[in-house]
Amino acid sequence: MIDVGVRDPDEFSAGRWPDWSFWKGQPDSPGAYGRGRVVVAMATSLASLTLIARAVDIAHGTRSVLLTSLAIGLVACYGIGCVLAPWYGPMALRRGRVAIVAAMFLLGAAPAVLLASPYYLTDLTYALSIGLMLLPLRHALLLGLGTVVGQIVWMRLAEGEVAWAQVAILVGVTAALGTVFALNFTIGHLRAAREQVRRLAVNEERERVARDMHDVLGHSLSTMTVKLGLTRRILESTGDVALAVGQVTELETMARTALSDVRATVSGYRTLSLDGELAGARMALGAAGVRADLPATTDAVHPGLREVFGYVVREAVTNVLRHSDAELCTVRVGPDWVEVTDNGSSTSGAAAGNGLTGLTERMAAVSGTLEHGPAPGGGFRVVARAPAPAVPPAPAQPSRPAQEAEPPGVARQGTERPGTDLS
Predict the structure, then answer these.
(1) How many CA atoms lie less than 13 Å away from 225 in the CB half-sphere?
(2) 303 within domain boundaries
(3) pLDDT of 269 strictly over 60
(4) Is 417 helix (H, G, I), strand (E, B) or coil?
(5) CA 44 from chain center: how many Å?
(6) How many domains, the chain?
């Protein structure tokens, strides 16, 4: 059951610390992430040039030389902090961020306190912008509200009136710089997300090709191995060259088909049919000396499920050839299911290999399920089911034999062949 009280980690929260980790970049595309850092640094650098006018204004004041020099020095340090804080602050830990914002506020407010001028608190707009960048939004807004209220109250108490133009500058410049930071933050995360999607797509395509290659080559090579063994036994026992040549000819045809399948798989155009897999299963089982009991037609199977059911038949028959001592392999099909059984020996405890794992993924892609385990009365069974199609299938042929009815449930997944990996 989903806990509705748990917040999605990707959901916006005013209490969350801004994550600027995307500025670290990726090894294959560092420039895309470094540009955002440069943009932020340039924006704060250009904005902080107005502090030059503040220093000139202080220099033309009537205060003592010592006090004036100290105030100008603090303004200079504040300007340097406005350039360095956006560059290094996002990479700092939480305590470091708090320390940076606190230092910026102390440097920005110090000239106003030393010279007893509430108008100079307008310069705190840069410290507030840094706070919006480094602190959770809730804390930064409270800090900004406290600064604005403090300036208004100080002006009212010290001057008897409020210079609303100075307050508007404080709010306006802070909002402008905060917007620049927010846009850069959003763009950076979108770039990082796009890069992650690209990597996931590449990995998914690699898994798809690996799964298809396993399905193609696993079945073909297993069948070819059986046929090569049969050819060797023919030459050793009877010396019937004509029969051996026939087997070699079939091997050549299979090799060419496998090569075509590999090329088509890599190109992404490979399709697989249930009828073709049943024909291939009949030939492979016959070469291995296993009697095949296969359906005469697949008209009852929903067209949208024939390809995935073809993979099920291919992998299940390949496992019979590799790991079974069965004498009979039976395949039954229905509109939304396929069943492959054999009468070989089976023992619980073997884990599913790559083949059955790949089949499970294929069935999941069509909202289906795959079950495998010992069959009642001995042997092994693989059953694949998919949801009933929304559109009724084409009219079926005359009613199916009784043995092709819906197969009963099978043992839970996790029971396999003795000593096999079902790969």
Answers:
(1) 9
(2) yes
(3) no
(4) coil
(5) 35
(6) 2
